[in-house]
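go over this record:
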Amino acid sequence: MPRKLPIYPLFLLLMLLLGCKKEPPTAPQLILPPDEEAMTELTSIIGPLSPYADSLFSADVKRLLPPLDSVELELGRALDPESGVTLYGVIIPYRQSVITAPGGHIYIGLNHYLGQDYPGYKGAFPSYLRHRKTIERLPIEVMQARMASLFPAEFGASPTLLNRMLYEGALLESANERMQAPDSTLLGFTAEELQWCMENEANLWKTMLSRDMLYTTDSQLSERLLLPAANSNLLSGNAPGQAALFLAVKIVRAYCKKTGDSPRAILENKLYNDNQTLIKSEYAPV
């Protein structure tokens, strides 16, 4: 005779189903509003803020800034719990979007992440910077500033372009180590700029070598290649600005893959000053 199974009341079944439902993870509030002490520290760094600019941007931040939940989840994964870092969301009416202070305070200019089409950016920022003014870039810029404060560049008397490339590449890769942002976000490229660099990687590298750029100590040339710009016409008429930074990240990745070292080890041990770092990477795009 078949065994009769007990019939559970409907409310018990519902309770079982509800008990299996998992709520999505919520991010702790990492980006805090500044208190009076924090504002005093910030103004001691950048000077007094214009009340007009502050009120104007504050209203637009409240109205236009996307929710910060995903950003705070990313930063929570990236920051060491014991780091002692405190993040403050503020208004920074200057070009710099993230400011670090002694003691682990990081001030994030939330008005810098309102989207590339925000009217307030036109005239204030060139187009090659406006497309970076998105919420996706916020975690990378925060972590890049954090890594730079932990490992400031300590070059020799006459750093080469290679030295600077290795430092900047390791800085970006260490900032992204626990977040794994896509390369377009990491480098601040449009999808088209990244695609162009990927398709022309070997040519970019050959041009840099053939023009003896890698070991130049000309700081102005290094800045033209590594700082944000409309293009990198020293390498190619079609190359986007900071194409050399794309190569720098590729070299750092090749080095870490070959040696097992982390990008942070390059910063901690100042391997960016050592020409053997490039040799050990065996970087040779084809």
